[in-house]
Amino acid sequence: MTETTGREKVDLPPLQLTSLVSLYAKALDSLAKRPVLGDRGAAATVRRLDHDFRSLKLRRDDAVATVARAAQLDRWSQEFLDGHPEADVLHLGCGLDRRVERLPVAVGRDWYDVDLPETVDLCRRLFAPLPGHQWLARSVTDPDWQEILPARPSVLVVAEALTMFLDEQSMRALVEGVVARYPHGCLLFDAYTPLAVQTMRKHPTFQAVGTGPTWGIDDARAFEQWAPGLTYDREWYLVGSRHIFRMPPLSILISGVMYLHPGLRRYSRLVRLTW
Question: What's the predicted TM-score (pTM) here?
Answer without folding.
Answer: 0.94
